[in-house]
Design brief:
Layout (H helix, E strand, L loop, with lengths): L2 H34 L3 H27 L14 H28 L9 H27 L2 H30 L6 H28 L6 H11 L7 E10 L2 E10 L5 H18 L3 E10 L1
Parallel strand pairs: 2-3
Antiparallel strand pairs: 1-2
Length: 293
């Protein structure tokens, strides 16, 4: 594994541990505040944070497995576990959204007390913290190119949105008073719908990754540009990229002088491969097919 990959792995692990500790702490705060503050929206928030803890643990386990070295049965490594973990995370989100929606509908149909005013202060602090958490995790996901880490980041953003919905719902209930107690529950119901929508946004790119869908135009452009700096490479044709974990495997067709020997073409292919891997550390297997110009 390259030094860049090791650095990315450490960054990803530290980011996930940050999420686990933060979500665990918030789940306790939200649960207690929701129970003593008469707010189901806060309790719904606590449910989501609890599922986030378990989903972050899944991300951590998946990342550890994804970075196992290639072996005889897995010549391209174990990185495909990462989008599979993302599917599990989406499952957690869908389950939590369903539970929240069900309980919200039940609460809307029965009378209950108004939420306590101090719950708004708790929610405001939670919103600020979750948005900070989202920005930290999404930045690290972009740097490491890990889709499950991106899913984990969006857990933070969806948590912030549900907290905003709870804040609005509680504010309406407190401002309008008796008869509007269910505003808090309607807020939780809205939050569940947003979580479901967000689940799709997380699921779609993970599905594309496991199906080897092409998302890598910028990387293709870099590969073509670097290839033309290698003496003897006249042009490039097909360039296929497959993402496996944090590594990108490449199939590249390169044009060379059609009059050179097979040995010279072979040496050129190896030189091009070494150059690409040196310039772009996240590349894994690079297969060069030589085409006569």
């Amino acid at each position: 594994m390259s030094s860049a990959s090791i650095s990315n792995e450490k960054k990803a692990i530290n980011t996930i541990l940050f999420s686990i500790v933060g979500n665990g702490f918030l789940a306790i705060i939200k649960g207690l505040a929701g129970f003593f503050g008469n707010s189901y929206a806060l309790i719904a928030d606590a449910i989501e944070s609890t599922t986030d803890v378990f989903s972050s643990i899944l991300v951590l386990l998946g990342l550890k497995y994804a970075n196992k070295p290639a072996d005889e049965n897995h010549p391209y490594g174990h990185g495909k576990i990462e989008p599979l973990v993302t599917f599990l995370l989406v499952g957690f989100l869908v389950v939590s959204a369903t539970v929240i929606a069900h309980e919200s509908i039940q609460n809307i149909q029965r009378p209950h007390e108004l939420p306590e005013k101090w719950t708004l202060i708790i929610l405001l602090l939670i919103i600020i913290w979750k948005e900070i958490s989202f920005r930290i995790v999404i930045r690290n996901s972009e740097e490491t190119k890990i889709s499950s880490l991106k899913a984990d980041a969006w857990h933070h953003r969806s948590d912030a949105i549900t907290s905003i919905a709870a804040f609005v719902g509680i504010s309406i209930a407190l401002f309008l008073g008796e008869g509007y107690e269910t505003a808090d529950d309607w807020a939780a119901l809205f939050a569940s719908a947003f979580i479901l929508y967000n689940s799709y946004l997380i699921f779609r790119p993970a599905l594309g990754e496991i199906m080897d869908e092409h998302f890598y135009d910028d990387l293709v452009e870099d590969i073509r540009r670097i290839s033309l700096t290698v003496d003897g490479i006249i042009d490039t044709e097909k360039c296929f990229i497959r993402k496996v974990g944090m590594i990108y495997h490449v199939d590249l067709h390169a044009k060379v002088d059609g009059n050179i020997s097979v040995t010279e073409g072979h040496n050129l292919a190896h030189h091009l491969k070494d150059t690409l891997r040196n310039k772009i550390p996240q590349l894994g297997h690079v297969l060069i097919h030589i085409e006569p110009h």
